[in-house]
Specification:
This protein has 156 residues and is of the alpha/beta class. The chain has helices at 3-32, 47-57, 89-96, 110-122; strands at 38-43, 64-70, 82-84, 100-103, 126-130, 140-146, 149-155. The protein is elongated. 18% of the residues are buried.
Length: 156
């Protein structure tokens, strides 16, 4: 009688895993045809922002629409849709219903980082801090902040 509950639990776990995978595949299909997309803003105009852009747009199944880039200093040769400085960020997010913001500036911009986190939190926008290291080409790392609680997520 000990084996029967274990078999039931394994069966339930299998059904749950199958359902979860089926939902993810259905969501990816919806996003490929333009449904359930997410409006995204990127803070920064440097090489980190450009590499992130390539990775986000590489798979249409992510459902990402990059609405623009904000940075107080526009990097020469920047090719994205520059929307203005950090001061323009809040107004743009409210007017355009932004779902996610990716911060690609270095941690030395701590005052801007804190301001963007606060604005994202106040407007219920998911915040991702992107940091590039030499290992970035092997791993994509995000710190997701929502309501000032951080969770480290590593996507391999």
């Amino acid at each position: 009688d000990i084996i029967r509950p274990a078999i039931n639990e394994a069966y339930e776990a299998g059904v749950l895993a199958f359902t979860w995978i089926a939902e993810l595949l259905a969501l990816k299909k919806l996003r490929i045809i333009g449904r359930n997309t997410r409006n995204v803003v990127i803070i920064g105009t440097g090489a980190t922002a450009m590499e992130l852009t390539k990775r986000l747009l590489n798979d249409p199944g992510y459902g990402i629409r990059i609405m623009g880039y904000f940075d107080d200093i526009r990097v020469p040769g920047f090719e994205g849709e520059y929307m203005g400085g950090i001061a323009d960020f809040e107004r743009f997010c409210v007017e355009n219903k932004i779902d996610e913001v990716y911060f690609t500036l270095s941690s030395s911009y701590d005052k801007i980082l804190n301001k963007v986190i606060r604005l994202a939190d106040e407007n219920f926008i998911k915040f991702y801090y992107i940091f590039w290291t030499l290992f970035f080409y092997y791993f994509s790392c995000f710190i997701q902040c929502f309501s000032m609680h951080s969770m480290f997520i590593m996507i391999i």
